[in-house]
Design brief:
The complex is a heterodimer.
Chain A: H1 3-9, H2 16-38, H3 56-61, H4 65-98, H5 104-116, H6 119-132, H7 139-164, H8 168-175, H9 180-209, H10 212-217, H11 224-231, H12 238-273
Chain B: H1 3-33, H2 52-59, H3 61-95, H4 100-112, H5 115-126, H6 131-138, H7 153-178, H8 181-189, H9 194-222, H10 226-232, H11 239-247, H12 253-277, H13 280-284
Helix pairs in contact in B: 1-12, 3-4, 3-7, 3-9, 4-7, 5-7, 5-10, 7-9, 7-10, 8-9, 9-12, 11-12
Chain lengths: ~270, ~280
């Protein structure tokens, strides 16, 4: 940063911004910290004074088949919808960056629309569709819904990546007589692999966390957030739920950080080879 | 067929078919459903289209009041989230220096933890026997638990602002990063004081990011139904909640469908306004 920039940016009290950032981060983490704290509390109610510290709730978690089933369901839905959304979204990203055709902006708009349509409207609309074509609500219907909401994220991430490197290699391969499908498979896909993996992880996380659609589309077999919601009524179940939520939070976080790390590493590799 | 054209169709058909079937068709079905008089008969059967639902909606003032309230709440939430996120983005770009990357990760972590969990944590914080009340009673700051923290529109607004702040910081951060430092230097060389150069140079240049951030919070918040469901109770409900009610408890799907169309129309108008003010594709590059 240059000296001129710093002197311009300097407010009269230069400490104000760091303090503001610190306070805001503290407030952002406070509710989560409270949850974490009370997951070790022996009492069943979330109120002060706290009882003894315990790992009891984490133990109870693994004795409860419904909880584990809900967590497993969420995994199945997130794996399948994440994979489907990544395949579809990567195809859209290739179309948007490597082909010129009429309706290009229509395709972009179509792929982005799920971001802006109110989730409650999409949820009830899908509910009506599945009823109309006679598909019972199940994990499959949830996964289909999640594919639609995760698609824009995949398109954005992969498009950004495809727009970011030049096409010399592709052109060279074409000049040497390679067919375009081969160019995609041998050159483009390996180059965008980090972005595709990171998009898959984002789609996976979006699905794992999604509640608004799943509440309408899950049948008797609930995903974890839906199950969590259904258990909120029972105060005695709360500590176990919080323990599970904390575990899920840690797992999601690890995945997101991993995705970001892969994305950045891939980015660095490409800039290095240039 | 030219091989490149074959590749085009191979890539084109599946995504467009998928989004068509599971996104456009459902919305068209809802549109059709909104012209039904009642729930009699087959879902896909033929019926005589009627404007009954829309007439009923226009006649019932409470729907419009709730719609106005929801838009107002979303507006306040977006405004507060942007106002609170701006100094954070400014700090990250101009002050954090080498720690900027780390600070950004620290800021974003809460956004990537479970949405339901973050909303729920406020329920536990704000409840009459919740963490805040029991803590204040425990340290004898108050004698009686404070009522009305939970189950109100204020609680919904607070929770939503909390949920959106990290996300709102991102477009502003991107816009601030793009500002040419020479502009700021010349402002200071010409003798502008820090505040003056902020309002004359930095803020106008960051405006696209501010607007993007505002709409990225505003638009989804208008259609929010989960947070009011958990935090708002009956007094804090939003427009999305009546749609939900008509498809669950009340089981009047045509009315719910018509209300969904109203909500969709409002959203699309907002998107159109946003698209005029912000060039989304340019912001992504």
């Amino acid at each position: 940063m240059t000296i001129g920039l710093q002197s311009v940016a300097a407010l009269r009290r230069p400490r104000v911004l760091p303090i503001y950032f610190g306070v805001l981060v503290f407030l952002l983490y406070l509710p989560l910290a409270v949850l974490l704290l009370f997951s070790f509390n022996a009492g069943t109610s979330l109120s002060f004074p706290m009882q003894n510290l315990t790992l009891h709730w984490y133990q109870r978690l693994f004795d409860s088949p419904e909880v584990l089933r809900a967590a497993r369901n969420s995994m199945v839905v997130a794996l399948s919808s994440g994979t489907a959304a990544t395949l579809l979204g990567t195809a859209v990203a290739l179309l948007l960056t490597r082909f010129r055709f009429r309706g290009e902006s229509f395709l972009f708009a179509l792929a982005m629309l799920p971001l802006v349509v109110p989730v409650v409207v999409l949820a009830v609309a899908l509910l009506v569709l599945f009823l109309a074509i006679g598909i019972d609500r199940s994990l499959l219907t949830v996964a289909i819904g999640h594919t639609v909401v995760a698609l824009p994220f995949v398109v954005l991430i992969v498009t950004a990546r495809l727009a970011g490197f030049d096409r010399d290699l592709e052109d060279a391969a074409m000049d040497l007589g390679a067919h375009y499908p081969k160019v995609i498979a041998m050159i483009i896909l390996p180059l965008i692999a980090p972005a595709v993996i990171s998009a898959w992880m984002v789609a996976f996380t979006v699905s794992l966390d999604e509640f608004a659609l799943a509440l309408f589309l899950a049948g008797n077999d609930a995903t974890f957030p839906v199950y969590l919601f259904s258990q909120l009524r029972f105060a005695s179940r709360l500590p176990v739920m919080i323990a599970l939520a904390v575990l899920l939070m840690v797992a999601t976080l690890a995945l997101v950080l991993l995705a970001e790390w892969i994305r950045r590493r891939g980015h660095r590799n490409v800039t290095d080879t240039r | 067929m030219h091989p490149r054209r074959a590749t085009f169709w191979a890539l084109y058909l599946l995504p467009v078919g998928w989004v068509g079937l599971f996104f456009l068709v459902p919305l068209v079905l809802m549109f059709a459903l909104s012209f039904r008089a009642d729930m009699q008969g087959e879902l896909l059967g033929l019926w005589r289209p009627t404007l009954d639902q829309y007439e009923a909606i226009f006649a019932i003032g409470s729907y419009w009041r709730l719609l106005a309230i929801s838009i107002g709440m979303a507006f306040i939430v977006a405004l507060m989230a942007v106002a609170m996120a701006y100094p954070v983005a400014y700090f990250l770009v101009f002050r954090a220096g080498r720690a900027a990357g780390l600070c950004l990760v620290i800021l974003m972590i809460p956004f990537w933890t479970s949405f339901l969990l973050r909303v729920m944590s406020w329920k536990f914080l704000l409840g009459s026997e919740g963490v805040i009340n029991s803590f204040l009673t425990y340290i004898h700051a108050i004698a009686q638990p404070l009522g009305g923290l939970l189950y109100s529109r204020n609680a919904v607004v607070i929770t939503l602002v909390y949920v959106w702040i990290p996300f709102a910081a991102l477009p502003i951060y991107a816009a601030l990063q793009r500002i040419d430092s020479e502009m700021l230097e010349s402002a200071s060389d010409l003798g502008a004081r820090p505040w003056a150069s902020f309002w004359a140079v930095t803020f106008p240049l960051s405006l696209p990011g501010v607007l993007a951030s505002f709409f990225m919070v505003f638009i989804p918040t208008v259609g929010e139904y989960v947070t009011p469901l958990l935090i708002g109770g009956s007094r804090g409900s939003m427009f999305g909640n009546i749609i939900q009610d008509f498809f669950t408890k009340a089981a009047n799907w045509p009315r719910g469908a018509a209300l969904s169309m109203v909500m969709l129309a409002v959203t699309l108008v907002l998107v159109a306004i946003a698209a005029r003010l912000v060039n989304l594709r340019r912001l992504l590059e």
